[in-house]
Amino acid sequence: MRLRMVCLRVAAGAMALVAASGAAASRGEPPLLLIDSGAARATIVVPQQAGPAEQYAANDLQAVLEKMTGVRLPSVADAAAAEGTRILIGGTRPTDAVVPPLERKDLGEEGYIVRRRGRDLALAGGGPYGTIYAVAELYDRLGARWYLPGELGEVIPRRQRVSFDRLDVRRTPSFAMRWVGTDTAWNLRNRTNRVPDDRLPPAFVVHPGIYHTQTVLIPHREYDRPHPEFFALIDGRRSRAGECKLCNSNPDLPAEIARNMSRMLREVPGIDLISLSPTDGQAWCECPECRKLDEPDVPRDQRYSRRQMVLYNRVAGELEKEFPDQLMLVGAYNVYTCPPKDPELRAHRNLAVVICHYDGYCLAHPVNDPSCEPNRRYLELVRAWQRHTPHVYFYEYYSKMNWVDLPWPIVHTVAADIPFFKSIGIEGLFTQYTLEHIWGNFLVHYVAARLLWDHTLDVPALLDEFYRKFYGAAAAPMKRYHEALETQVARSSVHFPGNAPANAAHVFTEALLGELRTCLNEANRLADDDLVRQRIAKIALSTEYAARFSDYCRLRNAAMELAGKDRQAGLQNALKTIESLRDEVLKDRQRYAGVASGHYFTGRLMMAREIDKLRTLTSGKGATGGKRK
Ligand SMILES: [Zn+2]
Ligand SMILES: [Zn+2]
Fold this sequence. Notes:
By secondary structure, this protein is α/β, with parallel strands linked by helices. Helix content is 41%, strand content 14%. The strands form six sheets. Strands 14-22-21-20-19-18-15 form a seven-stranded parallel sheet, with helices on one face. A six-stranded mixed sheet has the order 6-5-7-9-8-13. It has a three-stranded antiparallel sheet with strand order 4-3-12, with no helix packed on it. Helix 2 runs parallel beside helix 5 (128-141). The longest helix is centred in the last third of the chain and has 31 residues, at 530-560. Mean pLDDT is 93; it is low at 1-26 and 623-629. One zinc ion binds at residues 233, 247, 249, 285, 287, 289-290.
């Protein structure tokens, strides 16, 4: 860009000759100085009647700028008529002069305008969340990032001076529902809209929950006695177990569900989607009337689809009597993921669907990868749902429980999927998420959050920025580390949605682990910052956990190829390996915090069951056979 010498009026009012470029200079406006050399040069202004969201936005801005500069900007209500440079949060009185109310009306609840005019900087949302996201826009421009919750996940550059030239941006989100994360500050700074803090107003509200809401709509303990007929008939008796399904064919059930939904709609403000989906598990009703609703000779993911659609439609038909336009979010999962075959059965006009990208499909590869057969099926059923309703949401597994705390390198999948989801008109997604093993998949969640806000983001550039900011001098080897992991999964000829005991060994091969260790060693040598060293230590621990887990898988697999005493000895060795890993993780919780919880080794969860099975095999009872089936 051509540099010009221009005459600028600086904040103090004196005239100065400075080299400048860009629009601000050409318009003759000096930079808007908020903080300079340890001194506050601006005031944060909140509306006199600030709501909790506007107050939150102001407090967060004040705290983040203080961390960045050591300076705490004063904050006043707009009646105080602040002088000088002002940061206007939401709908203050002077905001209207910068962003006229008519312009704000077009933004929707979550859109925003960040505009500098003269000595005012307006951060104005269409609704309360727009204002919070407008503040996040400033963070973005100042180089602050939150890769994962907590101090180690935060990158706030130290600055002496905070100033802006010309600034005029208008943004709205790419997706209505962006449910990633469980930490209010992380979620909002990354512009997602699942808000766990109930002091804040509702953002995007799915009530009474994203999934398995049968247990809230028709609680077993409440209905079991007066209405046993509402619950599944199993082995000739109405089930007494809380996790059983409903008797979908019962004629009185739809009105009862709709009545409970109506009550919620009256009591809970701002519900976007009222949701209905059955319990987990396979306790399906066996009564003749329910069976009549099913379709014969359909794939597994369609087995109970028709009885579900019949119930969903009946409930929607009841609900619309009081709430004619209320969207009802219904579940598509496991044995009812695909809509029914029956061409006569159309979804009620008020149905929206959340489709679970569950086991049976693939997360190693993008949904739109034509060489991935499980996802071809998934995409086929997504298209089928889109012929029933324009309101399609996804339930994703960017954190996967049965991947047992291992690193989950599916950034390549998410980077391809989310822009693709936008192109086919998906309205949003929820992903499973836990802090228990966040160090193995925080990058997946971070990229997902950013893309859900703006699906056009340049992901390679976003990742390069991440390596630089997060690992500093160790960026180059850590980029190789993450890329090696991603490539291994992206190139996998096995299609899988998780399931560590079955798939860990072919992902975490000895060759890959060797490469990862080389990268980590080099990164440790180069790291010149204590925070960076702590981050690398977490990643290294996660890698060693994966190495030991996949060692166990290899030992078990090799032993199962043997027979007799050799198999016995091999399995004992495998058992020892996995038990020592379990014991260490459960004992040293502090060290493993955020890396592995050991959770899946407890109770009746998958690794506890796997260890029990191994114990039986090594006790001699199951070790006589030949090759594994
Ligand atoms: Zn039934
Ligand atoms: Zn695949």
